[in-house]
Every structure is written in C-alpha cells, then in structure tokens.
Amino acid sequence: MNKETAGKDPDSAFENAHIYVHFKAVYTLALKKGDGKGEDGWVCTAQNFLHIHGNTGKTGVLSSLSVGNVMNQVMTQKPHELLAATLAAELEAVNLLIRQRMASQHAPRIPEVTAHLVEAGGKRLRPMLTLAAARLCGYEGDHHLKLAATVEFIHTATLLHDDVVDESAQRRGRPTANLLWDNKSSVLVGDYLFARSFQLMVDTGSLRVLDILANASATIAEGEVLQMTAATDLRTTEEIYLQVVRGKTAALFSAATEVGGVIAGAPDEQVKALFAYGDALGIAFQIADDLLDYQGDAAKTGKNVGDDFRERKLTLPVIKAVAQATEEERAFWERTIAKGRQQEGDLEHALSLMAKYGTLEATRADAYGWAAQAKSAMAKLPDHPIRQILTDLADYVVSRLN
Amino acid sequence: MNKETAGKDPDSAFENAHIYVHFKAVYTLALKKGDGKGEDGWVCTAQNFLHIHGNTGKTGVLSSLSVGNVMNQVMTQKPHELLAATLAAELEAVNLLIRQRMASQHAPRIPEVTAHLVEAGGKRLRPMLTLAAARLCGYEGDHHLKLAATVEFIHTATLLHDDVVDESAQRRGRPTANLLWDNKSSVLVGDYLFARSFQLMVDTGSLRVLDILANASATIAEGEVLQMTAATDLRTTEEIYLQVVRGKTAALFSAATEVGGVIAGAPDEQVKALFAYGDALGIAFQIADDLLDYQGDAAKTGKNVGDDFRERKLTLPVIKAVAQATEEERAFWERTIAKGRQQEGDLEHALSLMAKYGTLEATRADAYGWAAQAKSAMAKLPDHPIRQILTDLADYVVSRLN
Q1: Contact yes or no for B43/B70 (Cβ under 8 A)
Q2: Which of residues 179-208 of A touch B (CB under 8 A)?
Q3: B214 burial class (0-12, 13-18, 19+ CB within 10 angstroms)?
Q4: What domains can you pick out in chain A, each with its CATH number?
Q5: Tens digits of per-residue pLDDT, A133-174?
Q6: Please, what is the Cα angle at A245 between A239 and A246, to 5 degrees?
C-alpha cells in the first residue's frame, strides 16, 4: 500500500493514535507461544477485569504472561487492541484461513502481491467486527471465521483497486500511486481476492449472508464511482457525501457486523442493531478522518494538513463551507476545487473560510453524533463484555478529534 | 472497448466470419415489431424446418415475415444467430434486466461506461448459452434470465478490467489501451458490474449456482493473473496454456451452460455434460482464435497476422514450437518472446519454425479435438432442436480454421 492509499485508509488513524502501548509486542509473543490447542486464554479491560474470563478458543493467548503484566498493558489498551486480545484465537484462525485461501496453485504472483497487504501489520478491524458480533450473539460454530476472512479479502481487494492510477491524474503531475506493482497486477489480484471472498461466503451456506454481502459490494462499488465525480463537484451535498462515505467505509463495517449476527442466528432486532452500529461507526470513523485532514497533527495522523484540499477532494468541512459561501467565496472554491487551479495561500484561505462558518466544529459534532448513534444501537444488544468494548470503540474513533 | 481488447475478445471472430448474412437487420426488425405479449414466434434451421415450432415466449419474432423470406435467411444462418433467433424473446428480457440492473441511482458514470460495452452490438453469446442450456433441460421459470444477465455482467466486467493498462507496458511504448475512459473508471465500474452480477445470482436463491459462479470467478481471476507471468515465460507448457485459456474463456462458457442446467433442475449427468460442453467449446474457441492470429486473414479476423508474437504472447502454436526447439531456435524464442527484443524478419522466422514442426496443423487438430469433445458432451443431452444448434456451434467455432 502506498502513501496515498495509506492516507485514504481510515485504519491509518489507528496506527497513529496518541496513546502508545506495547500491546502489539505482547500479542505477537502470545501468538508465537500458542501451541494451537487446548489452553484457555483470557484478557480483560481494567474496569471489569474480574468479570470476564472468556474462552478464546483453541489457542492460549497471554497465558504465558503474568497477570500483573497483563494488567499493566490493559490499563492503556485501546478498544480495538482489547478486541484483538479478546478474539486472539479466532483471529489466528482467520489469519490461517486467509493464508490458505490466498494461496494460488497456479499463479505465484497472487500471494506475492497480497501478502504485503494482508499479512503485514493489518489491524484486522473489519474481521474483528464480524467475530465480535457473532460472539456477542452467542455463536458457537465456525462459519464466522469464513465471514471474517471474507470481509478482510473484500477490504484488501478494495485497497488494491483504489491503488490503480487514473492516467489523467498522472498527467496532472500527481505522484504515481502503485509503486510496488503495476496497475494490471493490482486489478487482477484484487479480482482474485473478490472471487476468493465469494467462495468463502458460499461455504457458509447462508443465502441471507450472501444477500447482505452482495448488497454491500454494490454499495461499495457505487460509492467509489460516485466519489470520482462528486469529489470535485461543488454541487456535492452532505447527502451525497454520506453515500460516498458509506461506499468507502461504512458499508463494509455494517456488513461485517450484520453478518456476524446473522450467522449466529440472532433475532432480527439484534441484527438490525448490529447493522446500525457498523454503519454509524463507519461513518463516524470516516468523518473523523476527513476532519483530521484539516485539523490534525501530521505526527499523529500521518497526513499533512490539507492533503484533501490539495488533492481536490470535497469532504464534509468544505461541503459545509461551500453551502454557506458568498458569491466571491464560491468562486474561490470553484477555482481551487472544481478547476484545481491552486496557488500559494489557498489552503490558508480555505481554512479561514471554514473557521468563518465554524465548519470544523460542525463536522466534529456530526462525527460525535454518529458515534452516539453507534453506541445507542449497541445498547440494544445483549449484555456482554464485548458489547462494552464495541461501545468504547465508538467513543474511541472520535476521541482522536480532541 | 478498444482495438486491443477487441482482438482479445474471442467474440470478435463471430463479427468477422466469412458467411455474411442479413440476419441482423431481420432480427432488429422483428424486435421492433414485437408487441411484447402473446404471439408465438418460431424459427428453424433449414434441415429441420418442419420439426421445430418453439414458443419463444412473450414476443413474436419473425412472425411478420413470410415463411419464404425466413427460409432464405435461415439457409445461411450461423449457429449463434440461429440461437439468437430461437431465444429472441428471452434475450430481450435479459437485455431489459441488464439495462435495469446497470442503472445507478447515484453514479451516472456507471451506465455511461457500461452502455458502450453492454448495449452496443454485443452478441450475447454467453447469456445465450445459459438460456439455451436451461431451455434444453425443459426449464420453465425465469431465473435463467437473471443468470444470463449475470454471465453477461461478469463478461463485461472482465473486459473492463482487461482494459486497464499496465504502466510498464506503456513505458515499453505500447499503445494506450483504454482510450475511452481512464483506468480508474474501468476498474471501479467493472467492480460495480461484478457486484450487480452477484446480487442477481443471489436473487435466484440457488446456493449451487452461487457455488459454480464463485468457482468460475476464481478460475477466471487466477487465469488472468497466470497469463501475466506465463505469457512471456518460455517454460509455459501446454498444460499452463490450458489453464490460462480456461480462465480467459472456457470457465465462463462452462459456468454459463452449467448454471442453465442446474437452474432447470436437470439430472447430474446432464449438468456434467453441459459443463463439459461449455468447457470444450470455450477451449476450442480460444485455440482457434490463437491459431487465426498466425494463419488468419486480417479482413476476416480483424487482427493482423502475428499480433500475439509482437505482443510477446505465448500461445499454443509457439508453445509447441518451443517444446521442440533446437538450442539455436530456443535462443530465438528467448530473445523475441522472453526478452521482447524483436527486429525485422522475426515474425517470418517464427512462422518458418512453426511450419518446420507443423505446429499450426497440430494446433488446428487440437481445436478440432476440443470441438469434437463439445459435440460428444452435447450428445448426452435430451433430443431437442437447441441441442442441434449447440452441436452446430461447436463445428462452427472451428470451421473458421479452414
């Protein structure tokens, strides 16, 4: 994945968050020590340390570490890390499945391209949402592992396809995005991953799951196409922005949580709540990411302030400013975003216009609103330690904005 | 679709075949005249004119023409044209479905890109195979229409993705392939069509159909990736070539016929025969196409002799020559294909080496062998006018080689 894609991938926010913990090393160690069968592993949040003793399944995780040591780690753990620890054994099974299904007997180029994306440092946020949803609904089978791998494959395929360079963009002198592989490999290996994910879903034998993922795929693809045209079109409304965000991020989040509930045979109301949670979480996530582009600290976010402005991407803070623009201001947005004729001082002027209308604050309020929606959806699910972690996760995605 | 893709698309062979008939105009006229309900249409081959009186469904086809006139047309009709006439009403329903499902509420770019490919002059060979297989097995529902549309969407998406330019290829000074749209549009709109096809299959409610199409998708994607590396690798065997051909052409042909039988609830033996027919037909088709590249007449095939050689694509005639090459000849193939350092007279020398080992004749024999396999598979299916047309189609794809 190249720099540009890394910036677009909302997960990057996780990589660059400000609370640094050593958990990754602990997790890696635990995975290495796990012998693959028999032991009960456990992990907990600081606040309900005494209440959780989840069976993480086949592999003992953290069992080789002292309780004191774990407590120490746990105190500063971020929700997604806690989720990773809680679901460690299942995640390992998902990783195994991913490696197996990624392999191609005939085309060695495939694992070569995907290993980089799938193996290296992936946070597995989306598959974790599927595992968490299934567990939360009391699922005891193993189809959720296939669905988690499915979701990760779809995500990876999308990243590969996002990597494909628009030639006209190149002609405008922007950097070449796919440094590691050529366009053709990105496209065809992405297609292979889509096909693999499709096989995995079919393996679950659930038409309802297939229906959900088919619809999510269409929303994702439609959103991506819409983004191409909407990004530089000043007529883009908040409603269109939301469609783009759903395609880019929220549709896969909501499908990930929904299929977890469906495969667990959860009641309709819970399945709906899981969908609503994933949808709202994804939207909060993406709005936060777009906001950080204008107010972030490069050291934390890995993005320079104003990258989206320079790349002529209409995101919520600008859309809100355009909606209230005077004629003169509209001409400014027309020149800089629609026509892309930017000059020195334009970013500063754009920021001053956003300040004038308080659009950064309004955007932040929107992100918080979506996070609150995610939490209220989660409240409809059964009381379970994972419910708390997912609730905390909704808080976490917007906590970066403070 | 650009010239390069047109060359790769085996359907182009149909466009350029030597028996010219006026059927297209008749077909168009009939479609325009059809009022959409009630009339029984019919069409037939010359030899069994009296035995067929198929109900083509909702739209009367050819009914406005005199029998003598029809006979006249029919005498010179090619099998795929006869198939189109026989299935005209269903094909029209498929076209309608395609237009409906292609539409995007949010992203006008989508129909803009796909209309060109899906609407214009498509021969609908793959969807016809699905319709024909279902009809042959006595199907009376309408899920086969969805599957036919699915197959056409997958085909179109594959063409769009094939259009994406490998930047390194551009750097080697080869022509830009996607003249009409940029890479990004080709990729994302292709993804949208895949997603749409996925929704259509799910609509049939048949897990078995989903399984077949998921596996076909994986074979297609794997074959495409394999081709990238195998095309210029002199170690490519006939076996690997066959895998590439299955990915490129035969996997969708065989899936198209197989799902037709499955949706009709045909017995396993018939479903297997339908798969075998599609597989062998697709392989015969592609081998014939690759052979015509070296022995064809540009006026008939739309390709210049030796395009594959110039584009450094190892196809069967060359693979057979490489397998028997002397050390010196191997060095020639190494330089021209593996390294791509071609000079004047190389194509002529390549042709002389193929002549030396009789590889064009051997390749032709292979194509005929696959056509014979297709016909023998078809013999396992119920006696039905469509069975004859499909049998004739197998002969037709290799008849171009004489």
Answers
A1: yes
A2: 182-185, 187-189, 191-192, 194-196, 198-199, 201-202, 205, 207
A3: buried
A4: 110-307+360-399 (1.10.600.10)
A5: 999 999 999 999 999 999 999 999 998 888 776 544 443 333
A6: 90
